[in-house]
Design goal:
alpha+beta, six-stranded mixed β-sheet, about 55% helix, 2 domains
């Protein structure tokens, strides 16, 4: 269980790790205190037993304080960190003094004094409800209070009586520690279950967010005379910052928007939703890419905080055989024609940099057999096991090698090539959006 907790690295779980180490050290002390048990151990261990006993005796307070640190908040946490550093300093001094002189009890009084101080602080915090609510990261401190008090009474008695020459039965020591161990485990499980419930709630909310985000994307490809359009959208996480939209003007004309918000997850998805709303507001100017992008930039300026948005917009008029293209800091439009591939770059600044940037427009004469490909940088950035990116060259190779495939087949092939490029154990590294448009 401690191994799993160490890998998960969550609040409430890490305390189990430190409790496991604390328990192991406590068990080690009990073992080393038993002459009969030590006598049955290998000879080399018998020789090293005094050293192990000294190390554990001086450092167990540090580990115990570290375990409590996982349950503490605010000033209590800072105080425990200071005590832990002091405990480590005393412990190391005692260990080194033993190594050089053979006397191990020289710094024990200081260690015991520090242990008493830690216990007094913890009992005070756990025992006063107001302090417990403020300084403990646990929803219920009653069980912890009982375990702590039982352990504190036994520990205080032991730390005070032993220097005076009195030794009590170890059974009371073990029972006191067992009570604390049980209370710690109970509190840690409470925190774990609370974390799991919170994560489940977040996952449910993300599922809803994904449904909402999917609903703002086109439900299918528009029917435009002499065009075949296929789009693919593959978010890296439950929600993504990629976005695409079709603005159908009439049966012969359509605008295609592809956008990419910096970052991933919920923040990027929220901005993508803003782009969706903004795109609807400039739909009346669909035949003018410069005005579409300028309008989007004007709407989004001042709303993006520290993020930015790249976008590409392609307007196609099959009746007049032309297309208009402009972009805002986006990867180039790819045009496959007659077995050759042309990169069309007509870029202005990304959205949100300046209020009135210029977005130059590139006019393209189109004819049957032309193929356009628009994409986000999640297509070219995935890296293989050697750290080499999929890149523009590989993307162009896939397009040229699959000219006879339909748009949907090309999209499937491209996504398959990207997955194959990455190591099997590696998760998707970025959001991916691809739109393929064939002129018939």
């Amino acid at each position: 269980m401690c191994g799993i907790a160490a890998m998960r690295r969550r609040s409430g779980v890490q305390v189990l790790v430190w409790m496991g180490i604390w328990s192991a050290m406590y068990g080690g002390l009990r073992l080393l205190d038993s002459l009969e048990a030590v006598a049955r151990l290998p000879h080399w261990f018998q020789l090293s037993a005094p050293y192990a006993d000294t190390v554990i005796m001086y450092l167990i307070l540090v580990v115990a304080t570290r375990a409590w640190l996982e349950l503490s908040l605010g000033k209590l946490r800072s105080l425990l960190q200071v005590m832990m550093i002091l405990g480590l300093a005393v412990g190391l001094a005692g260990i080194f003094f033993f190594l050089f002189t053979g006397t191990r009890d020289k710094f024990i009084p200081y260690n015991n004094l520090l242990a008493v101080c830690v216990l007094v602080v913890l009992v005070t915090v756990v025992g006063v409800p107001k302090l417990a609510r403020k300084f403990l990261a646990t929803p219920d401190s009653k069980i912890l209070l009982v375990g702590t008090l039982l352990f504190a009474v036994e520990a205080l008695y032991t730390n005070v009586s032993r220097p005076l020459g009195y030794r009590s039965s170890t059974i009371w020591d073990s029972l006191g520690f067992a009570a604390l161990l049980f209370s710690f485990g109970y509190v840690a499980l409470q925190m774990v279950f609370a974390n799991e419930r919170r994560l489940l709630s977040i996952e449910n909310e993300l599922a809803i967010a994904r449904e909402i985000q999917t609903s703002i994307l086109p439900g299918g490809s528009p029917e435009i005379k002499n065009l075949q359009i296929t789009a693919a959208y593959r978010p890296m996480t439950a929600v993504a910052g990629d976005f695409y939209e079709f603005i159908r003007v009439d049966p012969h004309r359509v605008g295609v928007m592809v956008a990419d918000v910096s970052g991933h997850g919920v923040p990027a998805a929220l901005i993508a939703a803003m782009v969706k709303v903004a795109t609807q507001s400039v739909a009346t100017r669909a035949d003018a890419p410069r005005e579409v992008l300028s309008g989007l930039n004007q709407i989004l300026s001042g709303q993006l905080r520290d993020q930015f948005v790249t976008a590409a917009y392609l307007f196609i008029d099959t009746e007049n055989g032309k297309a208009l293209y402009s972009a805002a800091g986006h990867p180039p439009l790819l045009l496959s024609r007659g077995g050759k591939l042309e990169r069309i770059e007509s870029n202005g600044l990304v959205f949100g940099v300046t209020p009135e940037p210029d977005y130059p427009v590139h006019e393209i004469s189109i004819r049957s057999g032309d193929r356009f490909l628009m994409y986000t940088d999640g297509v070219i950035e995935p890296e293989n096991a050697k750290g080499k990116a999929f890149g523009d060259a590989r993307l162009e190779q896939v397009i040229l090698e699959n000219q006879t495939r339909s748009p949907s087949e090309l999209v499937d092939k491209l996504l398959s090539e990207i997955r194959s490029w990455q190591p099997a154990a590696m998760a998707q590294q970025d959001d991916i959006t691809v739109v393929v448009i064939d002129v018939c």
